[in-house]
């Protein structure tokens, strides 16, 4: 468990990140990790067969590209939950700061291996 | 499942709330609900035996009073996860807007019944 005895400041945790598409775990609530990530450009098309994934924008704008559905554009203070089993590929024209909520078991890019793929161990 | 096909704007969802201590479910990620709540004053001492509960401040300030531990003061952009089995009682001197993340099974005030207690059905 990653529960801590003090508040976690999301902006401060985001500020520690130096690499795009490299999520950091900053908390845990039940079986879900809370992560922050800075993203720019696109990740890779992938899906998580059994897990939903929540994207919340802290600053900037991200477009969640979905297979067979309209793009979802998220701005500051907005979130979207990519349902399990849905092919998706996030894209940000300019740097965007995100909070992610996903199962502790969720792999970064699903079963797709990409040069951008990070393991959970990388994120802890 | 409460997953929707469009972004959810947290501030807009908070603006719909007319009553303090009356959380509204605005999303679901895996087995966790995402809720918003406006709080002012104190709730009631209670615990959730088997479930953590995340409090994230959107505006204002909330103090999470904990049994046998220092109060946790949360300001905008900060979160704290109350570990399962921990007696707690949130308090806000002025109105505070919160995002809560908790298991779909979590009861509002644990096993404590208070005039402020809301059922999950109230929140949907």
Structure in words:
The structure is a homodimer of 124-residue chains. With 124 residues, chain A is mainly β. Chain A has one domain: Jelly Rolls (Sandwich). In chain A, 8% of the residues lie in helices and 46% in strands. In chain A, strands 2, 3, 4, 5, 6, 7 and 8 form a seven-stranded antiparallel sheet that branches. In chain A, a hairpin with a 5-residue loop joins strand 5 (61-66) and strand 6 (72-75). The model of chain A has no long low-confidence stretch (mean pLDDT 91).
CATH class of chain A: Mainly Beta
Percentage of β-strand residues of chain A = over 45%
Order of helices and strands of chain A: EHEEEEEEEH
Query: Which homologous superfamily in CATH is the superfamily of chain A?
Result: Jelly Rolls
Largest sheet of chain A: 7 strands, antiparallel
Low-confidence stretches of chain A are none
- The appropriate CATH architecture of chain A is Sandwich
Oligomer: homodimer
Rounded to an integer in angstroms, the radius of gyration calculated over CA atoms of chain A is 13 Å
| Alpha carbon gap, first and last residue of chain A | 11 Å
Shape of chain A: globular
Mean pLDDT value of chain A: 91
Report the largest inter-chain contact: A-B, 38 and 38 residues
Number of helices of chain A: 2
The counted number of beta strands of chain A is 8
* CATH-defined fold name of chain A: Jelly Rolls
Key phrases:
homodimer; 124 residues; mainly beta; Jelly Rolls; seven-stranded antiparallel beta sheet; 2 helices; 8 strands; globular; Cupin type-2 domain-containing protein (chains A, B)
